[in-house]
């Protein structure tokens, strides 16, 4: 199995070194490592020059565009993604490759992960622990798929990218772009799970999208709206209504007319959909 690893990065030179080395130190070697530098102004370019990787620099266009560019530049059928502040355990690729060889009909998999905050491992609460959740409905409330744990085959992306100019990751979403893609894949494909903590998810440092991006429920709603035509329409609407309730509550508290208008627009769209 030939594998391309795609690492998007933006001003993370201090963390990127560990991420790259965790890929190069794998017991099963990737065939290429692609770094998409999304307009970094720190020492990223100099750092990259010391490693046998493919480097592409672009003006800042966001993480979705960076991942899409990495997919476009990749030479191999199997893809893995790694956020530039996360770290792979040494056996990550080997164990995922073995899983796919043993399950050739499964073209999409993920693994469990360790959560590291200020250099200490966080103990997960019961509801945060990953299990073998392979169904679309298992992931509409919260996806348990971390981007840095994923391995997938390009064949499953052929249809997925048709929704907008062949985009794989939706570049209109400021956040939850991975949640959006996983849902689109899960409508058509089975998900495999390796029940081992094979990556370190690093938190507790600046410039993390998951902490800095406001109104994340809005982007989750945008992802969910794409599935109103699915067999899971009822469940999708219930989840959208729950997210809208949260958004409206915050918008009323802060007198945010723009968000209140958005909520009304979504509800009107759902009402129209239900009539057809």
Tell me what the structure shows:
The longest helix has 21 residues, at 233-253. α8 (216-225) packs antiparallel against α9 (233-253) and α9 runs antiparallel to α10. The protein is 39% helix and 18% strand. It has 10 helices and 9 strands. The chain has helices spanning 13-24, 44-48, 63-73, 92-102, 157-160, 177-186, 209-212, 216-225, 233-253, 257-275; strands at 3-9, 32-37, 54-57, 78-81, 87-88, 108-117, 120-121, 151-153, 192-203. 37% of the residues are buried. By secondary structure, the chain is of the alpha/beta class. The N and C termini lie far apart (46 Å). It folds into 2 domains: 3-211, Spore Coat Polysaccharide Biosynthesis Protein SpsA, Chain A (Alpha-Beta Complex), CATH 3.90.550.10; 216-275, no CATH class.
Q: CATH homologous superfamily name of the largest domain? A: Spore Coat Polysaccharide Biosynthesis Protein SpsA, Chain A
Q: Any idea what the radius of gyration is?
A: 19 Å
Structural class call reads: alpha/beta
User: What is the residue-averaged pLDDT?
Assistant: 91
Write down the CATH topology of the largest domain: Spore Coat Polysaccharide Biosynthesis Protein SpsA, Chain A
Q: Give unreliable regions as ranges.
A: none
Set down the secondary structure blueprint.
Layout: E1 3-9, H1 13-24, E2 32-37, H2 44-48, E3 54-57, H3 63-73, E4 78-81, E5 87-88, H4 92-102, E6 108-117, E7 120-121, E8 151-153, H5 157-160, H6 177-186, E9 192-203, H7 209-212, H8 216-225, H9 233-253, H10 257-275
Helix pairs in contact: 6-8, 8-9, 9-10
């Amino acid at each position: 199995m030939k594998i391309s690893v795609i690492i998007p990065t933006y001003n993370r030179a201090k963390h990127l070194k560990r991420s790259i080395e965790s890929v190069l130190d794998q017991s099963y070697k990737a065939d290429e490592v692609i770094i998409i530098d999304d307009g970094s102004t720190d020492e990223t370019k100099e750092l990259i020059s010391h490693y046998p990787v493919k480097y592409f620099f672009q003006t800042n266009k966001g993480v979705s565009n960076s991942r899409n560019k990495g997919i476009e530049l990749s030479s191999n059928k199997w893809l893995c993604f790694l956020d530039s502040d996360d770290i792979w355990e040494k056996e990550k690729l080997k164990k995922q490759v073995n899983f796919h060889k043993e399950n050739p009909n499964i073209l999409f998999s993920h693994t469990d992960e360790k959560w590291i905050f200020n250099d200490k491992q966080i103990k997960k609460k019961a509801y945060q622990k990953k299990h073998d959740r392979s169904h679309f409905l298992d992931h509409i409330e919260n996806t348990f798929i971390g981007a840095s744990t994923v391995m997938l085959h390009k064949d499953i992306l052929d249809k997925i990218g048709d929704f907008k100019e062949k985009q794989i990751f939706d570049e209109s979403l400021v956040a939850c772009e991975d949640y959006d893609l996983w849902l689109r894949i899960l409508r058509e494909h089975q998900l495999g799970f390796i029940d081992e903590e094979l990556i370190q998810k690093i938190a507790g440092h600046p410039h993390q999208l998951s902490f800095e991006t406001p109104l994340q429920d809005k982007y989750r709603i945008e992802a969910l709206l794409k599935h109103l035509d699915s067999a899971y329409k009822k469940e999708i609407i219930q989840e959208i209504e729950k997210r809208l309730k949260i958004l409206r509550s915050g918008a009323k508290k802060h007198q945010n007319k723009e968000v209140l208008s958005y909520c009304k627009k979504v509800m009107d769209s759902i009402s129209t959909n239900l009539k057809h």
